[in-house]
From TrEMBL:
The chain crosses the membrane at residues 53-75, 95-115, 127-149, 237-256, 277-298, 310-336. GO terms for molecular function: glutamate:sodium symporter activity; L-glutamate transmembrane transporter activity; neutral L-amino acid transmembrane transporter activity. The keyword Transport applies. GO terms for cellular component: plasma membrane. This is Amino acid transporter. Keywords: Glycoprotein, Membrane, Symport, Transmembrane, Transmembrane helix, Transport. Residues 454-473 are annotated as: Disordered. It is found in: Membrane.
Length: 473
């Protein structure tokens, strides 16, 4: 009996001896601090940097480009030297413009053909309502600031030089040109040129002998100087016409069911291939943005040379753009979605910096798509409809600064005005606000349409199935 008890005691002692090293090992594990914590911090930092590498590179490029531009201003570089300096930026613009057209067409056709037309009808109505409301708010903001600040009445002793010829355009002709561009007569030509009405002076008509009465001609100068509108064109892609065609083609293709499946698969494959190409291009954008900004800062006119009125005009426009981007748009997003708008906006930095550097909403479209689909997991049915459309139609920044310009010119009606003399950064801020407005619109419409999108999406399809994979590379 004693032996049995002794063996039990020994077994208990053995179990204690076995557990002691484990406790000691656990104790030493918790007390590994310095090197282990440092390595974990380095790992978390590297993971954060890998997730946000593109944002870091883009913001750094803006800072370096701005600094480089101001650092080189005292050198008085020639126009040729500035052209050479901005060559990497020119390559970026060309690469982005190369991908924009096939990306817009394939994205729209793929998106339109993959969902019920009734769902897109509701999405389209909400999108155009958003565009109209934000544009009107931008216009009223610009008018209010121009009335309060009075940029054209700041001084009457400054003379502003005028250069170039401004061609007056009739409002009716401009509206008709918009309708004509929506229905292009040639799709190939629409990829290269846009319709634009040009004017020719009508010649005086003589009598049956061919003699012109100068006295009568002077009395009827208005009729003699009447301009005759003629069809013409201007360089640039007719984005609006291609949008209308792609939307109509995609809707019809989606209604063809099994008969249209081969063509739907083709455009879906084309869209994926273009997105892979965009993945390569956007990583070059920080380099291009750096040199684009440096070159534009070197081209800027000195503030002291453009006059007090134009300086006040520029400050008025920038103030309006900041109000619209930091108050109006975030307020709309918060009211509709009940989410933090600034957290939403913080992940749009790559798109905003690209818009600021390129000064083109269309050229920024590949980066904007990447931000919305990858960073915010927005449904591609919304992003690939609203972003291409918004890049053409939603121009909050342009509406604001043109409203300020109209009142500014009215305030200095006795002075000639030359738009080319104004600081270049204003136009780049305007483009950034346009892109921000497009992204906020996608967030708002996506929230309002979430039930329709969920019911129309196939069960096996994920909204992020075809999102960009930049961070994974």
């Amino acid at each position: 009996m004693k032996e049995l008890l002794t063996s039990d005691d020994l077994s208990e002692l053995d179990s204690v001896q076995v557990t002691e090293p484990q406790e000691t090992q656990t104790y030493h594990k918790c007390n590994e601090p310095p090197g282990h914590l440092l390595s974990s911090q380095n790992g978390s930092f590297m993971a954060f940097f890998k997730r946000n590498a593109f944002v870091v590179f883009s913001v750094t490029a803006v800072a370096l480009g701005t600094g480089l531009g101001f650092a080189l201003r005292h050198i008085n570089m020639s126009a040729r030297d500035i052209t050479y300096l901005t060559f990497p930026g020119e390559l970026l613009m060309r690469m982005l413009q190369m991908t924009v057209l096939p990306l817009i067409i394939s994205s729209l056709i793929t998106g339109m053909s993959s969902v019920d037309s009734k769902v897109y009808g509701r999405i389209g109505l909400r999108a155009f309502s958003y565009y109209m409301v934000t544009t009107l708010i931008a216009v009223f903001t610009g008018i209010a600031l121009a009335v309060i600040i009075q940029p054209g009445n700041s001084s009457r002793n400054t003379s502003v030089s005028s250069s170039g010829k401004v061609e007056a355009v009739q409002s009716v002709d401009a509206f008709l040109d918009l309708i004509r561009n929506m229905v292009p007569s040639n799709l190939v030509e629409a990829c290269l040129r846009k319709f634009k009405t040009v004017y020719f002076r009508s010649a005086p008509i003589g009598n049956h002998l061919g003699v012109i009465n100068i006295t009568e001609a002077s009395k009827n100068r208005t009729s003699i100087d009447d301009r005759v509108p003629m069809p013409g064109s201007s360089d640039g892609v007719n984005i609006l016409g291609l949008l209308v065609f792609s939307v109509a083609f995609g809707l019809i293709l989606g209604s063809m069911e099994t008969q249209g499946k081969p063509l739907r698969d083709f455009f879906d494959c084309l869209n994926k291939a273009i997105l892979h190409l965009v993945n390569i291009v956007v990583w070059y954008s920080p380099v291009g943005i750096l040199f684009l900004l440096a070159g534009q800062i070197l081209k800027m006119t000195d503030t002291a040379e453009i006059g007090r009125e134009l300086t006040m005009y520029t400050l008025t426009v920038i103030t309006g753009l900041l109000i619209h981007s930091l108050f109006t748009l975030p307020l709309i997003y918060f009211v509709v979605t009940q989410k933090n708008p600034f957290r939403f906006m913080s992940s749009l930095l790559p798109a905003l910096t690209t818009a600021f550097g390129t000064s083109s909403s269309s050229a920024t479209l590949p980066v904007t798509l990447r931000c919305m689909e990858e960073n915010h997991s927005m449904d591609k049915q919304v992003t690939r409809f609203m972003l291409p459309t918004g890049a053409t139609m939603n121009m909050d920044g342009a509406a604001l600064y043109e409203a300020v310009a109209a009142l500014f010119i009215a305030q200095i009606h006795n002075m000639d005005f030359n738009v080319g003399q104004i600081i270049v950064l204003r136009d780049r801020l305007r483009t950034a606000i346009n892109v921000l407005g497009d992204c906020i619109g996608v967030g708002v419409v996506h929230h309002l349409s979430r039930h329709e999108l969920q019911s129309s999406r196939p069960a096996e399809e994920s909204p992020m199935e075809e999102s960009f994979q930049l961070c994974a590379s």
